[in-house]
Specification:
single chain, 262 residues, alpha/beta, Metallo-beta-lactamase, Chain A, seven-stranded mixed beta sheet, globular
Length: 262
């Protein structure tokens, strides 16, 4: 049974150094779940031959542009390609107003049902429950409301040792209060916008350093950590990886388009 994450974009704020904006595709038994949708996401999907028509649910962590500006373009492409299957979006309730305005302004009536599920910052809560997967949301610490997500496999496949899990922590300051929500997951994606030399900048902007992401991974006893959301000031990411591995050895850099199997 497939349970894999493909990072489509690992940069923050602006695309740079051949790194794109935040977007992540989780494949659970060939069902696709898109997490964040920065500008250019649909280009990345096409580049890596990942069918957008197989996406059933889209989770948007928050309303900073580098996490959702690609959404209306993706929806329009799905429409033009003749999608009929319903699509679910889980996001800040204000995103529905934004999408409705964009669709109205372009006089677009989608060919497929679009179901919107508002996320509320009210602690750890179940936002999706399917036969093989359960998804939880929880609040992160940033300048605007942000949701983290935990995806937990249900009904463990016979050939898998234990039910697999993935946690996604996008824009957030260092915050140990999230540890109970992500404890023991098989894979954690945690933002690491800056190096430790810019801890004060990270704190001011409510972002994390690579070393702080590693501390969270270590304290939460996760199996593997993937860092991302890198500042455009960094061309070479190996120093960020080295800092993180000095705290948590099982830290990895994402390679956009290459699946990480769990």
């Amino acid at each position: 049974m497939t349970f894999s994450l493909t990072v489509l974009g690992s940069n923050s704020a602006i695309p740079a150094h051949n790194r794109n904006l935040s977007a992540h595709l989780l494949n659970v038994n060939e069902r696709f779940y898109l997490i964040d949708c920065g500008e250019g996401t649909q280009f990345q999907l096409r580049k890596y031959h990942l069918s957008s028509q197989r996406i059933r649910h889209i989770f948007i962590s928050h309303l900073h542009g580098d996490h959702f500006f690609g959404l209306i373009g993706l929806l329009n492409t799905m429409h033009l390609m003749g999608r009929k299957e319903e699509l679910h979006i889980h996001a800040d309730p204000r995103l529905k107003e934004i999408l409705d305005l964009q669709l109205d302004a372009s006089q677009t009536v989608l060919r497929f049902p679009l179901n919107f599920h508002p996320l509320l910052s009210n602690g750890y809560s179940v936002i999706l429950e399917e036969e093989r997967l359960e998804v939880h949301s929880f609040p992160l610490k940033h300048s605007i409301p942000v949701s983290g997500f935990v995806f937990r496999e249900k009904n463990k496949p016979r050939k898998v040792a234990e039910a697999r899990s993935f946690a996604y922590c996008s824009d957030t300051a260092y915050d140990e209060s999230i540890i109970p929500y992500i404890h023991g997951v098989h894979l954690l994606y945690h933002e690491a916008t800056f190096m430790e030399s810019l801890t004060s900048t990270a704190s001011e902007k409510l972002h994390s350093t690579a070393m702080e992401a590693a501390r969270i991974a270590d304290k939460a006893s996760v199996k593997r950590l993937v860092i991302g959301h890198f500042s455009a000031r960094y061309d070479d990411l190996t120093p960020l990886l080295a800092e993180a591995r000095s705290v948590f050895a099982e830290t990895y850099l994402p390679v956009e388009g290459i699946p990480i199997d769990l």
